[in-house]
Design a protein that fits this description.
The complex is a heterodimer of chains A (about 110) and B (about 120).
Chain A lengths: L3 E2 L4 E5 L4 E7 L6 E7 L6 E7 L4 E4 L2 E6 L4 E6 L8 E8 L7 E2 L3 E6 L1
Chain B lengths: L3 E4 L2 E4 L5 E7 L6 E7 L5 E8 L5 E2 L8 E7 L2 E6 L8 E8 L7 E3 L3 E5 L1
Parallel strand pairs in B: 2-11
Antiparallel strand pairs in B: 1-3, 3-8, 4-5, 4-9, 5-6, 7-8, 9-10, 9-11
Classes of the chains: A mainly beta (about 110), B mainly beta (about 120).
């Protein structure tokens, strides 16, 4: 049972444009959501997070939106840069268990 | 910022041998660490939650006797893959939770295990 789903395995975006990565979840107990960036053979690097009490969190070029009723979150990157090319994972946790559940990842490619 | 060091980064071992992977939180104390496994082009699958001073909590389907986890101090957790087989070849990643939760989870750089 995949509790966190990223339905787009890949996304290609032109440099300077907006990248939108999507994530859906099924467990209504999740109350904390995170986005990670990952390069091959490396550990994930934290990008941005959002608590379920918020619907938006912004940090520089990265903004995460949370729609609790739809159990959907998205990561917006604007403007997209070539260095943003990587695999992006969304993850969720419930405060009690503390453990993270990851989506399958979306490979983002930024084209010059 | 929080740093988690994971060693070794790569290891090749023969079938039947055991391999130990270390995960250290360098600048913070982590009462809870997590071990993940990632197959090529797949998600990170949580294997177990490691709690300092107590037994690890394993996810369903993960063999406790095969993947031994020890969290002997607030800065070190180890994963030992015992009697390794080729199907254990994978990318193993640890993460440490820095309290409070808003500090987040910091990941190690991962270990590529190849069993030949």
């Amino acid at each position: 049972d995949q509790q966190v789903k990223q339905n787009s395995p890949s996304l290609s975006v032109q440099e300077g444009r907006i990248s939108i990565l999507n994530c859906d979840y099924t467990n209504s107990m999740f109350d904390y959501f995170l986005w990670y960036k990952k390069y091959p053979a490396e550990g994930p690097t934290f990008l941005i997070s959002i608590s379920s009490i918020k619907d938006k969190n912004e940090d520089g070029r990265f903004t995460v939106f949370l729609n609790k009723s739809a159990k959907h979150l998205s990561l917006h990157i604007v403007p997209s840069q070539p260095g943003d090319s990587a695999v992006y994972f969304c993850a969720a946790s419930d405060g009690g268990a503390q453990k993270l559940v990851f989506g399958q990842g979306t490979r983002l490619t930024i084209n010059p | 910022g929080a740093v988690v060091s994971q060693h070794p980064s790569r290891v090749i071992c023969k079938s039947g041998t055991s391999v130990k992977i270390e995960c250290r939180s360098l600048d913070f104390q982590a009462t809870t660490m997590f071990w993940y496994r990632q197959f090529p082009k797949q998600s990170l699958m949580l294997m177990a939650t490691s709690n300092e001073g107590s037994k690890a909590t394993y996810e369903q389907g993960v063999e406790k006797d095969k993947f031994l986890i020890n969290h002997a101090s607030l800065t070190l957790s180890t994963l030992t893959v015992t009697s390794a087989h080729p199907e254990d070849s994978s990318f193993y990643i640890c993460s440490a939770l820095r309290q409070p939760l808003t500090y987040g989870y910091t990941f190690g750089s991962g270990t590529r295990l190849t069993v030949v």
